[in-house]
Design a protein that fits this description.
There is one protein chain. The chain has about 55 residues and is an all-alpha fold. Helix 1 packs antiparallel against helix 2 (about 30-55). The longest helix has 28 residues, at about 30-55. The protein is elongated and about 45 Å long. The chain contains two helices and no strands. It starts with a helix and ends with a helix. It has one domain (about 15-55).
Length: about 55
Amino acid sequence: MAENEKAKAKTEQAKGKVKETLGKTVGNERLTAEGKAEQSKGDARQAKEKTKDAFRH
């Protein structure tokens, strides 16, 4: 399951980056904000998984 969560984190980060870049390109502030939020969600998920990994070893 941990690998699945790590993959979700990477996917969220990548999708967020695409949304943010697209939003900046077309001048859409809402899309830019959504992208940043999605990246943050992915960052938080990744941090949680790294913490769990640290306690397993």
